Amino acid sequence: MPVDAKYKTTATASGGGRDGHTALADGTLALDLTVPKELGGPGGDGANPEKLFALGYSACFLGALRVAAGQSKMKVPDGTTVTATVGVGPRSEGGFGITLELDVYLPGLAAEQARQLVETTHGICPYSNAIMRGAEVKTSTRA
């Protein structure tokens, strides 16, 4: 599924990966990473890839929710929130996998209307599309 990317950003990780450092190429954000205790690390207040994924997915889905509402001639209720929960762990088939949960709070909206809006949004949100339909990943190697 080709994508006409209108925006791109680049980040580089260094050090130990999950216990290293990551920074955006444009200098707007840089973070030290810490492995959670649940994955055998020291834990603490540091960031990790799952925290970053949850931040991005919740924000992206909320933005897509507004697009979906506009297409349906609806108004997103004041106080609407999207909470993303991201998990990581071993897969039964080997390797590791990600679990995702989205909790969409649409105060005052009828249950069926809210369900339909979230379903429509799921088809619009780039994160949801990447997860459900697969994202094209190109790799390159330098030595």
Counting structural domains, the number is: 2
CATH architecture call of the largest domain: 2-Layer Sandwich
The portion of residues assigned to helices is 25-40%
Shape field = globular
Task: Quickly count the helices.
Answer: 3
Instruction: State Rg.
Output: 18 Å
Fraction of residues in β-strands:
15-25%
Average predicted confidence as pLDDT:
94
Q: Which spans have pLDDT < 50 for at least 5 consecutive residues?
A: none
N-to-C CA distance: 30 Å
Biggest sheet statistics: 3 strands, antiparallel
Biggest sheet strand line-up: 1-2-3
| CATH topology (fold) name of the largest domain | GMP Synthetase, Chain A, domain 3
- Just give the CATH class of the largest domain: Alpha Beta
| Secondary-structure element series | EEEHEEHH
The CATH superfamily of the largest domain turns out to be K homology (KH) domain
Strands, count: 5
Structural category: alpha+beta
Describe what you observe in this structure.
The strands form two sheets. A three-stranded antiparallel beta sheet has the order 1-2-3, with no helix packed on it. It is built from three helices and five strands, in the order βββαββαα. It folds into two domains: about 1-45, Single Sheet (N-terminal domain of TfIIb), CATH 2.20.25; about 50-143, 2-Layer Sandwich (GMP Synthetase, Chain A, domain 3). It is α+β, with helices and mostly antiparallel strands and about 140 residues long.
